[in-house]
Automatic annotation (TrEMBL):
Stretch forming the signal peptide: none
Disordered: region residues: 1-22
Organism, as annotated: Methylobacterium indicum
PANTHER family documented for this protein: OS02G0805600 PROTEIN, QUINONE OXIDOREDUCTASE PIG3-RELATED
Annotated keywords: NADP, Oxidoreductase
SMART domains linked to this entry: PKS_ER
Protein name stated in the entry: Enoyl reductase (ER) domain-containing protein
Keyword NADP: yes
Pfam family, one: ADH_N
Amino acid sequence: MSICHAPAPGGPETLRFERAERPSPAPHEVLIRIGAVGVNRLDAMQRAGHYPLPPGTNPVLGVECGGTVVEVGAGVDGIVPGTRVAALLPGGGYAEYAVADHRHLVAVPADWDDVQAASVIETFCTAHETLFELSRLAPGERVLIHAGGSAVGSTAILMARSIGAEIVATVGRADKVCRLREWGIPHVVNYREVDFADALREIYPDGVDVVEDFIGPAYLARHVSLLRWRGRLAFVGLLSSGSCQVDVAGVLLKMLQLRGFTLRPHSIAEKAAVVERFRRRWLPELTDGRITPAIHAVLPFGQAAEAHRMLENADNFGKIVLRI
């Protein structure tokens, strides 16, 4: 089978296609023939050498896919070959076949293609866990969502809108401002034109309840100042580097909660619980068409390097998917 990986850290041009043996499922796993794979920022970070892999992780890129089960392990019940699925992977998704724990996949509707299946599970799991499990966003609360044109950011906006939260989103391009306003999001800030904190204070002088933070150190001090009493912040990404000074007194006096999240290091059982929450809460919304996530581009597998360039240049609004 064909795989795509980065044999040495570097830019998108370091990606290489090679032949490899088809994997075999362990007793608790299934083998999936991959039709499409979602492209995620952690793929680019791993390629560049900035994402240390958990011990024993498959070094081939790709942590989510859409495809068809072709073989099941001896200990797997309730899943049969021919089932079309969306799956979280421990790695190995940039390939024609991959294995996944049977609890880390969901059967998809018959009218979905593999691109749709590959575009949702990692993104929706991350957005749900950070917005609702960690930050406990409730209807009517105010939420600041950065990276509003990214796959996770745009999904978080759709989720927050669906429960009736009040949203302020940030993006770095005028076309993305327009796209979000077409979605009915009235408060969209282009952070390249104005300071997002100043703009937010004009909208909500007393601040917000929740921050979905993809940025990290560069914004943290401002986030602490913008959060209201018992506000919550979830670190979802790290688009800035270095360290920062934080008003710890502000954190204490407002009783703020600052929590970090990354999905990949979760245990098998923890990931199973995450996937089950996605299945129960959001798969019905997707199936019924109440939420339609943005897919920016679908590229052939051979253009994986172009997909990474597109992602790193922030050209995308929504998900980038490779069709295998």
